[in-house]
Structures are given as C-alpha cells and as structure tokens.
Amino acid sequence: MSFIILAIGILLLILFITWAKLNAFISFIIVCLFVGLTNGMQIGAISASIQKGMGDLLGSLVIIIGLGAMLGKLVAESGAAETIAKGLIRFSGEKNLAWALLLTSFIIGIPLFYNVGFVIILPLAISIAIKYKIPPVYLGLPALSAMSVTHGFLPPHPSPTALVQQFHADLGLTLLYGFIVAVPCIILAGPVFAKTLKKYNNRPLESFIPPPKDEASLPGMFLSIFSAFLPVILISAATITDILVKQDTFPKKIIMGLGDPVMAMLVTVLFSMYSLGLRQGRTMTQIGNSLADAVKDIAVILFIIGGAGSLKEVLLDTGISGQIATSLQSIHINPLMAAWSIAAVIRLAIGSATVAGLTTAGIVAPLIVTSGANPNLMVLATGAGSLFFSHVNDSGFWLFKEYFNLSIKQTMKTWSMMETIVSVVGIIAVLILSYFVH
C-alpha cells in the first residue's frame, strides 16, 4: 500500500506541475496533505510535519544558498566571467577553444546559479564561434556540459547543497568527490561528444550576439578566478586538513573555521564585494542593490526546497520511507542505482533537475541507514539522475534551442544527448568511486 500511495503522490506532483502548471511549492504542500491524509494523519499533525520538514532543511541552507546567489551576482555583474573566458582563450589558442570554454564554464559555474551562468556563457560562446568561423553548437555545447555538472553535482548549487543536508553528507567530501566525478562527465559530454556536432551550422539569432565590452573596465584574471573559486579553496582545505592533521592544533582550528560552509561563503562574499565591486569603482549602494536582487532571484528555489523537505518529513512520519527502504533493501538493489533511477524517472516526467533531485531524496534517504551507503556518493548519484535526458518540459531545452536557432529534432540530438551523457557517465563514475570510498 505504501508504494501505491507514494506512486499516486508523485503522479499528482507531476500532473500539478506539468499539466495544471501549478507552482511547484504549492504542489509539494498538496501532495504532503494527500500522503498524510491517506495514511490516517490528522490535519494538525500533517501541518506540524510540513513545518518541521521545511524548517529542518532550510534552517541550515538559507545562509549558504543566499550567500552563493550573492557571490554569483557579483561574478556576473563585474565581468569576471568574461575576464576568465578571454584569458583562457588567449592562453589556449584557436585550436583549443572548446577546451578553453569548457574550463571557463566549470570555473564560473561553481559560484553562478545555472540560469545566470547559462545566459552569460552562451552569448560568449556564440560571439567566439562567429569570430573564428566555428559551428556555434560545436563550441557552445561543451561549455554547457560543464555548467550542467556544476548545477547537478557541486555545492553551493541549491540541489546538491540541499541533498547534502537531506542525506547528512559531508559538504567538503561531496565537493571533492564531485570534482572527481565531474572530470569524465564534462570531457565525454563536452569536447568528445562535440566532435560529432560540426555539421550543425545553424546561425544563432542576431539578438543573442552581444556587443563587445570595454576590457579596461573588467577585473583582472587573478582576482576573477580567486573570487569565483575561494569557497572551493576554503572548504576543500578544511576537508583535507581534517583528514591529514589529527592533532587539534591552532592552525587547524583556523583552517577548519574558515572551511565551515557558512564561513567560507561569508568570507568569499565580503572579499568579492571589494575585489569585484569597490575595486571596480562601484559604490556600496550599487553593490547592496545587486545583493538584494540576488536574494530575490532565489526566493522561488528556496520555497521549492522547503516543499521537498516537507514531503520528506511527511514520508518519515507516516512510516512510508522506512517501508520503502526495507522493500528496496530486500530486493538487493544498489542504493546508488536506486537513487539515480528514481531521480531520472522524475526528471523525465517533470523536467526540473532541482525538483527531481529533492523529491528523490525524500524517498531514498532511509536507504543510507539501512544499506550503509556512502551519503556523499548518494548525493552525486541523485544529482546524476536528476540531469537525465532534458527534453521539451525543461526550460533549459528551450533556451538552448532558441539561442542556437535549432529545430526540436536537432535540439534533441544535441542538448538532450549531452545531458544524458552527463547523467550516465556520472552514475558510472560514482559506482566506480564507490569501490574505493567507504
């Protein structure tokens, strides 16, 4: 019966979001009510579960995701992304433009939220492709493969950050493992797959080709990369120090303190306010307005994350999660494959990678306890599944189609295939990594 109730609940969630076009947050709350009522819970108890689940998940995430959005805004508006791209292109030369854009996207994709990174990197790729007379799809797709990987696998992006919390994983280790998994994903889905796409010579719409910026107004290369990568440096340093240094020394305390995710993001935003703001001639009022806009940009995402946390709590309180975990354990399914498969199915149905990943978390989280699965790898497996085969119900599909002036069939053969390669290579890499990480 538990499986039937859960299946109907997920089906309702899919119908509400895709057919009824209902807001995802409201859809989550309605499904919470359905699951609770069909399991005999009182309205008051359901309401308490919804509030507890939302509070438990958002309580530790709002600061990290909020500061991450602020950092992304500073990187985007300062021109740091363009500085990084131009510098890497000059360094790589014309023959390695695809690799240069790939690396650029990976670097700026860490602090930038997906939609922001998308609209920054695509016009850049189109401009370079036209300048060097290269098929735009051949150059643009590798860049977006890196952007997809950071969106699905790496904190501080909303979905992987929320999954770290849901699975009680270690953010630093998840970040390190995420880098390992990311390498084969972006290489195979990016430059390797792009070699088959040189026949796509569609000329992008003129409105998507941006005018050149004054290079004198852009921040320097070192400050641009350092500002974008500082959270990764601080968090990774803390994780490595904790593994290698056993004594509780004063330097270790300092490194561990700065490597706390909240502190790492706060230090980075404060530094970037100077390096990418004040130092570029912007006033504190202008910087403050940008930071306020960044918070507005993520409001909807935070509500969706909160709704997913509520659903997880209702599934726990009704006992459905425990029953499902026991059932999945009894049929001896690999928990990593279970997470990937469920996320992939929901992604196919709903389109949103964020909703797919967070919905899956509420279903498979108990498997970590019952199976002893590594929670950090469960985050990555779920993230990989949530990227599977983007198609017509995903906004990214249409953005890519319109930017590159492709038909729906061509978009399926390029964009959808790239996302599928990222997803499949991602779960294969996670399964291989699971043999070495316990």
Structural class, by secondary structure, is mainly alpha
Which residues sit in consecutive blocks of at least 5 with pLDDT less than 50? none
Q: Alpha-carbon distance between the termini?
A: 34 Å
Q: Radius of gyration in whole Å, from Cα?
A: 22 Å
Strand content: under 5%
Give the % helix.
over 70%
Annotation field: number of helices? 20
Specify the biggest β-sheet.
none
On the 0-100 scale, what is the average pLDDT?
A: 88
Shape: globular
Count of the separate structural domains: 1
Your description of this structure?
The structure is a single chain. The chain has helices at 2-18, 24-38, 43-78, 80-92, 97-109, 114-132, 136-153, 158-166, 171-194, 221-244, 250-259, 261-275, 284-297, 299-318, 320-330, 335-350, 353-371, 375-385, 395-404, 408-434. The relative contact order is 0.15. Helix 6 runs antiparallel to helix 7 and helix 10 (221-244) runs antiparallel to helix 12 (261-275). With 438 residues, the chain is an all-alpha fold. The two termini are 34 Å apart. The longest helix has 36 residues, at 43-78.
